[in-house]
Amino acid sequence: MRFNTSLLHGEYSADQGTGATTVPIYQSSAFAHKTAEELEKIFKGSEFGYLYTRLNNPTVEALEKRVAHLEKGLGAVACASGMAAITLAVMNILQSGEEIVSTSGLFGGTFSLFTQLEQFGVTTRYAKNNKVQSFNDLINDKTRAVYIETIGNPKLDVSDIGKLAELTHQRGIPLIVDNTVTTPYLVQPLAQGADIVIHSTSKYINGSGNSIGGIVIDSGKFSWDFAKFPTLREYGKFGPFVYLAKLRKGLFKDFGACLSPFNAYLNLIGLETLGLRMERACYNAGQLAGYLQNHAKVGTVNYPGLDDHPDHTKAKQQFLGRYGGLLTIRMGTKENAFKLINNLKYAANLANIGDTRTLVIHPASTIYAANTLTEKEAMGVYEDLIRISVGIEDSEDLMEDFSRALSKI
Ligand SMILES: *Cc1c(COP(=O)(O)O)cnc(C)c1O
Predict the structure, then answer these.
(1) Protein residue with its CA nearest to atom 7 in ligand 1
(2) Considering the domain 3-270 in this protein, what is its CATH number?
(3) What is the pLDDT of residues 2-51, one digit of tens each?
(4) Which CATH class is domain 274-407?
(5) 181 CA to middle of ligand 1, Å?
(6) Of 174, 182, 262, 328, which cross-links 195 as Cys (Cβ 3.0–4.6 Å)?
(7) How far is it, in rounded angstroms, from Cα 200 to Cα 79?
(8) Which residues contact 105 (CB under 8 A, 6 or more apart)?
(9) What is the pTM of this model?
């Protein structure tokens, strides 16, 4: 089954009872069982069944199965948000005193989370660039995971998933990849050797910006050394499901950051058109990047699809000639950046990406306002920078909108 077909037919077919084509919303907190014996078995784990929506739910499960299928994973756990997914994905394997090695081109929320984790004794070290050697230099006997983004948001640098997976496996630790910006339409990190993938489904998977959600997908292939990851040992009986079993029965259940069935439904509806939306967003972003690159009032344009992007060749090969819907531009001054944002008609000025609509934001004064100058620059954020999440409008209208707004500067 090919990608666009999987979006509609993968791991779910029409409701057996009624023939309903969309997944029913099981808006129920708990699920009743006929006998006390049955419920005892489900609680014990010797029989499968739905218990309570904080643990599992049929609508949420349909989303988990479909995304796991698209990402070529063994299974998935859907969470209340992308941040919940990242928190749970790393905390599932880390203990106080241990470390994460991370890319420096990191989403602001994740950087903030890794800073918060210091109060629980977890240290994060940031690779100075995205070369494999920079990650290798920081891995020590306390490191328990390497964390990267496929395309850094908003640095837009591209990591080599296959090479980093080789490195982390040599060092006995998993590679965790945030695939929010590229989605499985551009790349399936697990197929390239990564071990765990996370998404903020709030972005391209949902697609229309109507609900917050996240998901953790596991390949089931990493061979966990229980001496190094002792908290996984008691779940060893679940075989390849060890990571997912610990997650669902452990922190996911106890943190309570579950996805609501209604939001799972909205994500499932959005997911059906992921391929079409990504194809259009990638095309539009390429058109807009080319247009802005040749505009006298725009400084540098950062888009992995441009020939002069430092990671262009890597992106071309890894994402099969597609480069995503995000680009950034530098306007020379903060004033010019603000003027451009204020004069755009279609592009909405807000803190989100991956919507059907084109979105813009000035990251330095918003998402990254609390960071120091050095931190900002490490994450690719400058005072004159605008991030653009290109939507699925007609590209001619987008270029006209930018042309009009730029003429007022
Ligand atoms: C938005 C985003 C997140 C966080 O997701 P939420 O759903 O907002 O919690 C994580 N990673 C990336 C790359 C994002 O863009």
Answers:
(1) 82
(2) 3.40.640.10
(3) 999 999 988 877 677 888 889 999 999 999 999 999 999 998 888 999 99
(4) alpha beta
(5) 9
(6) 174
(7) 9
(8) 130, 149, 152, 153, 155, 156, 157, 378, 379, 380
(9) 0.97
